[in-house]
Amino acid sequence: MGHDQILVVEDNARNMALLRDVLGASGYRTLEASTGRQALELASEHAPVLVLMDIRLPDMDGTEALRLLRADGRTASIPVLAVTADAMAGDRERFLEAGFDAYLAKPIDLDELLAAVRLHHSRVSTVLGPNS
Ligand code: MN
Fold this sequence. Notes:
- By secondary structure, the chain is of the alpha/beta class.
- The protein has one domain: Rossmann fold, CATH 3.40.50.
- The protein is 46% helix and 18% strand.
- A 5-stranded parallel sheet has the order 2-1-3-4-5, sandwiched between helices.
- Helix 4 links the parallel strand 4 and strand 5.
- Helix 2 packs parallel to helix 3.
- The model has no long low-confidence stretch (mean pLDDT 89).
- The site of manganese (II) ion has 5 residues, from loops.
């Protein structure tokens, strides 16, 4: 149930396809949401090991979606990585202060993405056991 599933929240179809391909090639299954509301539903229903969160979504800001995930006991402890094109000075600090576990700037560096996914996924696996 939800093992090794990563929830990708992204409203751009090309970015979603890229993330699906690179994560799939590394053995992860993706759950896909294109709105914040859909992300909240999938997260509480499937308990993914990690969330990759776009910031600019059609229905809410990714930071608001993060706040709602953290406010729900079922999803509060899932690591959430911000993936955003808002790569301006101070953004990294702003997103980490908002509670994201990591920050990845677009265009996405695939090596950096996989390293961040492995880091935060292994943190979860250490708690839940090797097959989580
Ligand atoms: Mn977007």
